[in-house]
Amino acid sequence: MSDFRRVKISNVDFVFINLDSLVYFDRKHKNGEGKKDGKTVECSADNPLANWNVSFTMDEERAKKFYNMCQDHFKACCGKKEPFGAVHGYSETDFDDKLQMRFRASRKAKDSKGKLQQQPAVVDAYDVPLENRRFFNGSKGDIVVTMFPADNPSTNKKGISLIVNKVTVTNPIYGAEEYEDFDDVKSSMDAPNFDRDMATEFDDEIPF
C-alpha cells in the first residue's frame, strides 16, 4: 500500500487561509502581555519554513470520520503496533457554543531537492483559477489533500500529515476582516517535503 493517499473532502468551511503568499510561523514574535508568543508572517521561498497552508472545518460527525480515516491509513502504512500520535495540525475549539474540529493542510515552498514547488491550485466552482486567492474565514468549498505518515519533530509524535493539493472555493467571502492569529499547532511548518514527482501516485481521488 502506498504511503500517500489522496482524498477529496466536500462542503468544508475554510479558516486561517494562507494560499496567496508564502508564510511561516514566527515563534519569537511578541504579542503583548498575557498573550502567547508567535505570529504567522509572510516570507520568501528562501525561508526553510516557508509554506502555503489552509485550515478547514466540517460538521462533527464527518470530522470524526475523517480523523478515523487518517488513523486507519497510519496503521495500514506503519502497522498496528506503531503508536498513533496525532493528525498533525488538528485542533479542537469551541465556536458558537459548538465543538469545532479543525484540520490544517500545507505545502512547503521547496521540495527536498531545493526546487520551488507550485502553489496549491485554487479554483472557483467552475474549476477556473481564482484570481483573488485572499478569501476570508467562513468561505466554503471543497479541498483535496494527501495524507501520509510523518514524524513531527516539535512534538516527537508519529502521525499523519496533510498536504494541500487543490482548493475549490464555491462561496468565497471577501472584505475587511481582523482576527487573532491561529495558535501554533506545530505541524504544518515542520511537515516533511512533498516532491511533485510523487504525483504519479495520485491517479485516483477518494471522495469523502
Explain what you see:
- This protein has 208 residues and is mainly β.
- The protein has a single domain, classed as Beta Barrel (OB fold (Dihydrolipoamide Acetyltransferase, E2P)), CATH 2.40.50.140.
- Helix content is 9%, strand content 41%.
- It is built from one helix and ten strands.
- Strands 1, 2, 3, 4, 5, 6, 7, 8, 9 and 10 form a ten-stranded mixed β-sheet that branches.
- A hairpin with a 2-residue loop joins strand 5 and strand 6.
- The longest helix is centred in the first third of the chain and has 19 residues.
- About 13% of the residues have low confidence.
Keywords for this entry:
OB fold (Dihydrolipoamide Acetyltransferase, E2P), ten-stranded mixed beta sheet, globular, 1 helix, 208 residues
Shape: globular
The CATH class turns out to be Mainly Beta
Strand percentage lies at 35-45%
Task: Determine the N-to-C terminus distance.
Answer: 19 Å
What's this entry about, in short?
The chain has 208 residues and is mainly β. It contains one helix and ten strands.
Q: Helix and strand layout, with pairings?
A:
Blueprint lengths: L4 E22 L12 E4 L8 E7 L2 H19 L7 E2 L3 E5 L2 E11 L12 E4 L15 E13 L4 E15 L34 E2 L1
Parallel strand pairs: 1-10, 4-9, 7-9
Antiparallel strand pairs: 1-2, 1-3, 1-8, 3-6, 5-6, 8-9
